[in-house]
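Aim 2 progress update. The chain analyzed this quarter is reproduced below.
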Amino acid sequence: CGHTKVLSKTEARGHYLKEAYIAPTCTEAGVDGKVCTRCDYTEGTEIKALGHSYTSDNICTVCGEEKIIPEYILGDLDGDGQIVAKDLNIIKKSIGGQTSLSEKQNLAADINNDGTVTAVDMNRILRYIAGLIMEL
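Predicted structure tokens:
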């Protein structure tokens, strides 16, 4: 048909920056600086995410999120439903710095519920396995 279409080129408009403070949340960083009102561009100082701060009821005091506690059996570090020498070996390696425990394993290994897995917890598991005590 001989018709040609002429496309016009539009120059980029650039950023339109405004001073802004975006507060950090438990999981997202904030910004103290400038943000573009046309796009997601930001410049300034990043403020680290706050991280959750849980109460003894496992509710975050900042955002209200409930922390999900995994199910576990006290003393059963490998999750097989039994408290045996294998579990004792796992806690021994953890205390010796040879391995790290998962969150679930930490809960299962902290027999005296003091927030730390130590030789005291390991000794209690040993005594249970040996039949010297009937419950952990």
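The mean pLDDT is 90. The CA atoms of residues 1 and 7 lie 18 Å apart. These observations will guide the mutagenesis experiments scheduled for the next reporting period.
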